[in-house]
UniProtKB/TrEMBL annotation:
It comes from Rouxiella silvae. The lineage of its organism: Bacteria, Pseudomonadati, Pseudomonadota, Gammaproteobacteria, Enterobacterales. PANTHER family: ALANYL-TRNA EDITING PROTEIN, THREONYL AND ALANYL TRNA SYNTHETASE SECOND ADDITIONAL DOMAIN-CONTAINING PROTEIN. This is Threonyl/alanyl tRNA synthetase SAD domain-containing protein. InterPro entries: Alanyl-tRNA_Editing_Enzymes, Thr/Ala-tRNA-synth_IIc_edit, Transl_B-barrel_sf.
Length: 220
């Protein structure tokens, strides 16, 4: 039941043809798993892809077996070894990838002010990064120049920087050029210049944690 996670290899792969390597049923319904999987399952602070198999809408979940399982919303008929057509929604994939990459970028934008990201949530409309102080000299939340930080990020986005991802054993690592590597299993844009409208919505401090809410879009 080997499955290839194509979504980790190419964010921009929106369709593929593949055979089924496993099928079954559980509390969520009937499911299949494709050998070449382009669907991102929810996890790591990023929502699941929206997609279809043979033009039938599917829900995407990480199965207990570790496979990425697809749950058709209506009967999906096929025979053994049949090649099925899989598609993900480009709009949602690119928006989610823009938000996830922007979250990593925001992490490094706060470094000079003494804060380091420790967790992220990259869902549309509710994206945020949580930070802990790097040391005792971290700038207080009410002293953070949020608009200046926003302007600095916008300038760097216009300049661009390549985003790379690779594996070291079972660990996947991502890197925005001229920053530091981060362990991450999400989808990312190829360059930060594809991020548009990156804005800081709010900054709150509670129980030693700084939470910055933000928004971003994909630049066509």
């Amino acid at each position: 039941m080997t499955q290839q996670p194509r979504y980790l290899e190419d964010t921009y792969c929106f369709s593929i043809e593949s055979e089924v390597v496993a099928r079954g049923s559980d509390e969520h319904g009937e499911w299949i798993a494709l050998k070449d999987n382009i669907f991102y399952p929810q996890g790591g602070g990023q929502p699941a892809d929206i997609g279809w198999v043979n033009d039938i809408a599917v829900k995407v979940r990480r199965h207990a077996s570790g496979l990425v399982a697809l749950y058709p919303e209506q009967a999906l008929e096929f025979v053994k070894n049949e090649i099925l057509r899989a598609k993900v929604s480009p709009a949602e994939r690119l928006r989610n990838s823009a938000l996830h990459t922007a979250g990593h970028f925001l992490n490094f934008a706060l470094y000079p002010y003494g804060w380091k990201g420790i967790a992220g949530h990259h869902f549309p409309g509710e994206s945020r990064v949580e930070f802990s102080p790097i040391g005792p000299d971290a700038l207080a939340v009410d002293a953070l120049p949020l608009r200046e930080i926003e302007e600095e990020m916008a300038a760097r986005l216009r300049e661009g920087a390549e985003v790379k991802a690779w594996r070291e054993g079972e660990t996947r690592i991502t890197l925005i050029e001229n920053t530091e590597p981060i362990l991450c299993g999400g989808t990312h844009l190829a360059n930060i210049n594809q991020i548009a409208d990156l804005t800081i919505k709010s900054a709150k401090f509670k129980k030693g944690t700084l939470r910055i809410s933000y928004d971003a879009m994909y630049r066509d």
